[in-house]
Amino acid sequence: MNAIIWNVRGVASVATRRHLKKLIQLHQVYLLVILEPFVLRQNFTYTRRYLRFDMGAQNESNKIWFFWNSGTNVTVIIDHPQFLHVRVEDPRLARAIYLTPVYASCDATIRRDLWVGLHHISLDMDDPWLVGGDFNVITQDGERTGHNTHNRGTTAFSDMMLDCGLEDAGFIGNRYTWTNGRVRKRLDRVLINSTAAAFCRQLTVRHLNQTSSDHSPLLLQWVSDDDLGPRPFRFLNVWTKHHDFLAFAS
What we know:
Blueprint: E1 2-7, H1 14-27, E2 31-35, H2 44-50, E3 55-58, E4 64-68, E5 73-80, E6 83-89, E7 97-103, H3 108-122, E8 129-134, E9 144-145, H4 154-164, E10 166-168, E11 172-173, E12 178-179, E13 184-185, E14 188-193, H5 194-199, E15 204-207, E16 218-221, H6 245-249
Parallel strand pairs: 1-2, 7-8, 11-15
Antiparallel strand pairs: 1-16, 2-4, 3-4, 5-6, 6-7, 8-14, 9-13, 10-14, 12-13, 15-16
Helix pairs in contact: 3-4
């Protein structure tokens, strides 16, 4: 099953809409997440029809648009200014998955509300869970290059991943997903919990080439496996960044 998550920086552009349609057809995309559409809510239905999707949902801030077709059943569970938490059921999936598209605030203080929201979801999450989008923050210095590389909130982001039981799904392609011409950063990513890591055994996240946006589209491709089997122990480097790691390890 294929999905695309992309901070398009506006869908008013004809070139952007045409490129989106080509990506959808080329990669046989069943789920599409558009971040920062930068158009009024009344343009939502036109965009959905132009891209040939049957159904759609918007979050309350109008920063996240989510499209799917009638063969897929999507239930919106939480509508939040910085994310949209949904349950996805599809004949191509052996079981339902939970998907949380994210568009995080550039303000580290406001992002705290996002981390709290994801933490609350994680408390009762035993099913496959994928969290993806533009987090507007990096996890380590190696995810940025260029001048003016100071990035607030890195520790809080890593702590959130640890507290929520989420790990980076990795990627194929260019290391950086955003640039302003001088600075490059990996602001866009996909996080998964351990159940999703076992369920989506062949999950890949590709950083596609940048075109009309300063962000790269993320292409998610996976094959579900209902035979989860025993889950191997995984050590995540992000654990070492938690303030209580040394006390817990000792």
